[in-house]
Amino acid sequence: MTTRVDEDPRTSGRSVARGDGPGDSTGRGRGSAPPAASASLSTGPTPTPTPEPTTADPAAVPDHLRGKDVTEIPTGDRVVALTFDGGASSAGLPSILGTLADQQVPATFFLTGQWVDDNPQGVAVIHADGHRLGNHSMTHPHFPALPDQAIRDEVRGAEGRILAAGADPRPLFRFPFGDRDERTIAAVNDLGYIAVRWTVDTLGWRGTSGGMSAQEVADRAVNALRPGEIVLMHVGSNPEDGTTLDADALPDMIERMRAAGYTFVTLDALLSTEDRRRLAAG
């Protein structure tokens, strides 16, 4: 079951439906003036006219990022990238977008094509608020079980949906369930995408029925703090108990990270100025 957001997620405290099964790393998915620049590396793109889908140049993926499922931003600066996967419900999205807007924090959202189809207004607001979007496949399958053509269809399918919604996910890709191998990483690289994993999974997707609490979610993210940390969270609710622990933990998490001297970036921080120039040209 999916959840459709048909009104501005920043002003609505409710969702039309709750429980979807875990969708990302077992997962599920999880804002209003544009986020302010929090760090010099990257603070999220300003929405621009959407290009038509094209076949990306494989050379666009920088050599130092090819063949990897990146777990942190290579930097000595005290920066953190907050990321949210959207593959099931959108129950936590209003709260997440509200917190990000109130705190002027940019984030990166990895969305499936199906989630985009079910939540057009949510995608529009995420993009309009200046957050970065990434590709999370079309239907959230286990990639190692797919033949090469099916991998291409999954990646291009989600890409087309996100482009049609007014944003561009390229060159950021996250594997559903975090499930990948050497072949599948090479496949997404050849489609022009950098594979991005995470430094820490908050485990908010487990919900209270899985023994987690908002406090424990925030603790996991803060205890893993290091320069370039990538935090995995989800947009949706736990399908059994309906909780949205990542959304609930977010204000405390941000406050504690700032108190430790950290600022926030999007995953564009993975790319050097030259990388971005080549991507824009290619």
Protein traits:
6-stranded parallel sheet, alpha/beta, 3-stranded parallel sheet, globular, 30% helix, 8 helices, TIM Barrel, single chain, 282 residues
Summarize it:
The protein is an alpha/beta fold and 282 residues long. The protein contains 8 helices and 9 strands.
Mean pLDDT score: 84
Please give the CATH class.
Answer: Alpha Beta
Helix content: 25-40%
Number of strands: 9
- Unreliable sequence segments: 1-7, 11-57
What's the helix count? 8
- Spatial gap, N to C terminus: 38 Å
User: Into how many domains do the coordinates divide?
Assistant: 1
CATH topology: TIM Barrel
Rounded to an integer, what's the Rg over CA atoms?
17 Å
Shape: globular
CATH architecture: Alpha-Beta Barrel
CATH superfamily: Glycoside hydrolase/deacetylase
User: Strand pairing plus helix content: what structural class?
Assistant: alpha/beta
Order of helices and strands: EEHEHHEHEHEEHEHEH
Largest sheet: 6 strands, parallel
Percent of sequence in beta strands? 5-15%
